[in-house]
């Protein structure tokens, strides 16, 4: 297992380098001048040129890339163009909020997705099955921003149960977490149902029933555990997606996370902050995928990494 983890970590290095390179080139191909944004539209040209020289934007692209990669290897993500504070500090302030939102959304998705998929599979072609799958399809199909606005209008404006936005208490977390986790809940529910139906048709499940075991024991002890592998894969991918895809939810609910930071940084052409945020999300996504692979062997003892 240790050798497998080391190999995966080594393979992650070129992936992260590719992500950094792609983001670096994409941002510099975008229209707009960070020096002009910092100086202001009415600033004299010499002031803009001086800021551009301080930021190294007057250097050739390959030189800028070399300087950035050299600083990155030393653990220096650079300074924010807009605030002149270290990027690591800017992201460090926002990242706990994003992790809190993503973890809460993932918990909702896993609990309710597994429960809905299990109930639907064990009552195939019933009204419960149809109703559950319609709900899952709605969760997948409804745009996040619309769902968030409707939830805010009903539960915050009309009923007054939850705050409209911001972060601070558990009540602030409820609506953003449900909004962000709705799509993942639907996907996990559908995957659980499909995987459970496939497992329930296997011979060893028929054998367990022939031995006189109750349906609950057959479903929970024999079928569910073997059906979890694809569900774990999907959950791991969805967690990484929640980290990177929380931009709309954080914007709707004014949640002070990395997503809002990235939106503001892109609008202000704050290259270092955007690059640092994307790199952080890529690292977390890679780590989550590694944890998913390790979890496989815990759920199914037949899986071994040599």
Describe this protein's structure:
The chain has helices at residues 2-29, 34-39, 45-55, 61-73, 87-122, 127-141, 144-158, 170-200, 203-210, 215-244, 247-252, 258-267, 271-299. The protein is an all-alpha fold. The chain is globular. The N and C termini lie close together (7 Å). The model has no long low-confidence stretch (mean pLDDT 80).
List the main descriptive attributes of the protein structure presented here:
single chain; 306 residues; mainly alpha; MetI-like fold; globular
CATH topology group of the domain at 100-256 = MetI-like fold
Strand content: under 5%
What structural category arises from helix and sheet content? Answer: mainly alpha
Q: What is the overall shape?
A: globular
Helices and strands, in N-to-C order? HHHHHHHHHHHHH
Query: CATH class of the domain at 100-256, anyone?
Result: Mainly Alpha
CATH architecture of the domain at 100-256: Orthogonal Bundle
Total DSSP helices? 13
Helix content, binned percent: over 70%
Gap from first CA to last CA: 7 Å
Q: What's the average pLDDT?
A: 80
DSSP strand count: 0
CATH superfamily of the domain at 100-256: MetI-like
Rg, Å, rounded = 24 Å
């Amino acid at each position: 297992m240790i050798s497998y983890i080391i190999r995966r970590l080594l393979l992650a290095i070129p992936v992260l380098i590719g992500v950094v390179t792609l983001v670096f080139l994409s941002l510099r191909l975008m229209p707009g001048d960070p020096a002009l944004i910092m100086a202001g539209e009415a600033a004299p040209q010499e002031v803009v040129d001086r800021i551009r020289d301080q930021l190294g934007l007057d250097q050739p692209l390959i030189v800028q890339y070399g300087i950035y990669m050299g600083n990155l290897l030393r653990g220096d993500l650079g300074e924010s163009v807009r605030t002149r504070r270290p990027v690591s500090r800017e992201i460090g302030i926002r990242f706990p909020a994003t992790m809190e939102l993503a973890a809460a959304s993932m918990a909702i998705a896993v609990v309710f997705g597994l429960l809905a998929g299990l109930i639907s599979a064990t009552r195939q072609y019933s009204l419960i099955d149809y109703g559950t799958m319609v709900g899952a399809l709605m969760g997948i199909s409804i745009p996040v921003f619309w769902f968030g606005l409707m939830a805010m209008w009903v539960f915050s404006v009309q009923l007054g149960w939850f705050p409209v936005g911001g972060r601070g208490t558990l009540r602030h977390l409820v609506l953003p977490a449900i909004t962000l986790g709705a799509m993942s809940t639907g996907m996990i529910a559908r995957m659980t149902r499909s995987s459970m139906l496939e497992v329930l048709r296997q011979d060893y499940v028929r054998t367990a029933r022939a031995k006189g075991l109750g349906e609950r024991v057959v479903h929970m002890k024999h079928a569910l555990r073997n059906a979890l592998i694809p569900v774990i894969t999907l959950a791991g991918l969805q967690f990484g997606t929640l980290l990177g895809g929380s931009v709309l939810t954080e914007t709707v609910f004014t949640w002070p996370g990395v997503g809002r930071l990235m939106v503001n940084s892109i609008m202000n052409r704050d290259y270092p902050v955007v690059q640092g945020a994307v790199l952080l999300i890529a690292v977390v996504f890679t780590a989550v995928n590694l944890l998913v692979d390790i979890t496989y062997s815990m759920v199914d003892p037949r899986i071994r990494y040599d």
